[in-house]
Specification:
Length: 241
């Protein structure tokens, strides 16, 4: 049975054409067994009460897919890590851990958003650890949504300013982090997003062939990983649709 994997859609009201693409993808996915979204489905998700447009339409689309029997699995990204039980109730989806070992058409694979693999960016990793402190998250989401939006905009502006001064290699994965994650889970296939650098990397891991498939972002690199009995194919989204 076919599994589809996408990442880094960054859906929001400013890009209705990407929302339309996503809804077309959901229609195609009805013939599949599983849909995996590996983080950053939303450009910004500030809690399960964040129902700004087009969020309700996205939730409804995922709910429709779940109701026809497709397994919808979602990982949190750095733009939507506040997804929780409310998101799951609204969509019928299941949230996956940061490192999820699954089988894709019978092939063991590790799924990740990918930001934890960028270990050279120590500033980001410190920020990430802070924002993932579970007791702090309810305090943030209890604040009015308007306040959360202002706070998120301020953080985004600061991050963009700092990002312009960072060397590109700081924002990519490291070989050591990749190898460590794959060894922990005993796999030869890793699929992730986050870096916006879509590619298929082939290498040796402990003397055996291994692959790292990087999914594209929906800012011009839209693609989908199709996994079935024939293997894994990273296709341009337009070609798949």
């Amino acid at each position: 049975m076919t599994a589809l994997l996408v990442s880094d859609l960054h859906l929001d009201e400013a890009r209705p054409e990407k929302l339309a693409l996503f809804l077309r993808l959901l229609e195609r996915a009805r013939a599949c067994r599983e849909l995996y979204i590996l983080g950053d489905l939303f450009q910004l998700w500030l809690g399960d009460d964040d129902l700004r447009p087009p969020h309700p339409e996205i939730l409804q689309g995922l709910r429709g897919l779940s109701e026809v029997g497709v397994r919808v699995r979602v990982q949190r990204g750095n733009h939507d890590f506040l997804m929780g039980r409310g998101f799951c109730r609204a969509t019928g989806a299941r949230l996956l851990p940061d490192e999820a070992r699954v089988e894709l058409a019978g092939v063991p694979a590790l799924l990740m958003h990918g930001d934890t693999l960028c270990t050279l960016d120590r500033e980001y990793q410190r920020f990430r650890r802070f924002t993932r402190i579970r007791p702090l998250q309810p305090l943030f989401t209890a604040m009015p949504l308007a306040w959360r939006l202002r706070k998120a905009a301020s953080i985004r502006d600061q991050a963009m300013t700092r990002g312009r001064n960072k060397a590109p290699e700081l924002m990519d994965v490291t070989r050591e982090a990749v190898a460590g994650a794959m060894r922990r889970h005993g796999v030869r296939l890793l699929v992730h997003g986050h870096t916006h650098l879509p590619a298929v990397h082939r290498f040796e891991l402990d003397g055996a062939p291994a692959r790292r498939i990087v999914l594209g972002d929906w800012f011009g690199n839209e693609n989908v990983l199709v996994c079935d009995e024939g293997g894994q194919r990273l296709l341009p989204l337009g070609e798949f649709l």
